[in-house]
Amino acid sequence: MAHEKRRPAAPLVAKVLLIITIVFLYVPIAVMLLSAVLVRTEGELNFTFKYFLEVFQDESLMDALKNSFIVGLGSSLLATILGTLAALGLHRQKNAMTFLVHGLSLLSLIFPEIVFALSLLSWFFVLKMELGLFTVVLAHISFTLAFAMMTVLARLASLDLSFEEAAKDLGASDWQIYRKIILPLLKPAILGGFILSFLLSFDDFLITYFVNGVGQDTLPVKLYSSMKMGITPKLNALSSLMFLMTLSGLIFFFRSSAFRVFFEQGRGKHAEERKEISQ
Amino acid sequence: MRLAPRLLVAPFLWFAFFVLIPLIIVMIVSLAQRGPYGIIQWTFGLQNYFNAFNLRYSGILVESLKLASVTSLICLALGVLIAWAMATADARLRSFYVMALALPFLTNLIIRIYAIRLFVGVDGPLQMTLSHLGINFDPYAFTQNKVLVLYGMVTTYLPFMVFPLYGAFEKFDFNLVEAAQDLGANSLQVFFKVLLPNLKTAMGTGLILVFVPALGEYVIPDLLGGAKNMLLGNLITEQFLKSRDWPMGSALSVILMAILLMFSALVVLLRKRTKHGA
Prior knowledge:
The complex is a heterodimer of chains A (279) and B (278).
Chain A: H1 12-37, E1 38-41, E2 44-47, H2 50-57, H3 59-90, H4 96-110, H5 113-126, H6 133-157, H7 161-169, H8 174-203, H9 206-211, H10 219-229, H11 233-255, H12 257-264, H13 268-278
Antiparallel strand pairs in A: 1-2
Helix pairs in contact in A: 1-11, 2-11, 3-6, 3-8, 3-10, 4-6, 6-8, 7-8, 8-12
Chain B: H1 4-7, H2 9-29, E1 33-34, E2 40-41, H3 47-52, H4 55-88, H5 91-106, H6 109-120, H7 125-132, H8 139-143, H9 146-171, H10 175-182, H11 187-195, H12 200-215, H13 219-225, H14 232-241, H15 246-277
Antiparallel strand pairs in B: 1-2
């Protein structure tokens, strides 16, 4: 392996700041994890898992979890399909339509979240649509679509053009080229787009808060309203569970090919270095 | 390929129907008036925009601009140094740092804020430590204040600054640093004369990525700031969900977008100019 170029160390201030920042980021989270299992009863600290059980026995929380999954899976499925279509349509084309779609996707990305939320609320009001999980799904597709599209587009840009050309020379139709060549090559990126949309949808609070119906909270919205009431051991347990879910998701993501799709483009060299190091 | 344009029809319609039209609706509503019982009265005028600049609202606007700017500047200063330390660590540590910063960022915002509230709250470890040390404080002033809002903002938006800067450091040729050091430059000179000019694009990107969401932030001031610390995002939300004055809320959000557009244009312009100058 070629030795990595030397990088002169940053000054001590920078290193110290990095460590302090990480400490500041994690101390509250560590306190939250500890408070979920160490509960004070009559002045004594006791170790217990019973609040985790209570979370699973709480029907309103489980309903919220179910809603989060319905919204997350439904919206990310459609956002991925639409995003893949958009990416294929944008790939190596330039005309009025691609200009429009590109512009609109950028617009949806730079919109402040709060404006996104209230503009959709106003629109649903004008359309006289009843607010509920359905409007939440529509809203989530709208804000995740551009992310799914970008993920697939990034992979498409790195595809070798000669595959398509060879297929065309051999007499394949457009449809065959898409089905037999491009889509299989795009599979990891499409999966990546799907996971990304799901995570964005699952985590979203603000947009959901604006466009959801009464009594149809997703988990973050439920957590927000419970938190307004105060802090309880059960909420500690719930938040800890959600944090651990993110952690395991990240570890899985870091090892999967979906993650590499993001990091390989534009930083190809670095990814290669890493591969060499791990060998 | 001939098939391609047809693939764009569905995504285009979706974007038009759920991004563009809603935006236009907000602009139209911002010109209307609030009728009795929160009904929108379709009489058009610029009244809401004039009202937005009266004393009560403009104070909130200035507060929000101040918070977003301070957040951006802290993130910038911290971000440059942190990214520098990350990029010069050895390879294994580097991916650890990336993960360490990405994890809280991927964790739900509400949960991170919950954790912060738990930490500073009554019976939380911070207050317990302080009272053990015999320091007097008002337990409630402690749980909701501006410092806490700033803390929440910086820890939330820092990754948006760090990751573009880290990317820039990754591409940077560190031989230049060594060359400068061989020629007798100290750390400060290396920083300002060698590193900083190469980070301009990433700094601009980071500033936009932090400032834009920070200015419209709702959740952090709402949960960490208390009722006294009203900001633009909270004001807009209140107009929509509580006072049911949609036209006023729409006007405020159009103003919010105008500010963000001007800010982004300014950053891009400055970046272009320095590029030509260099």
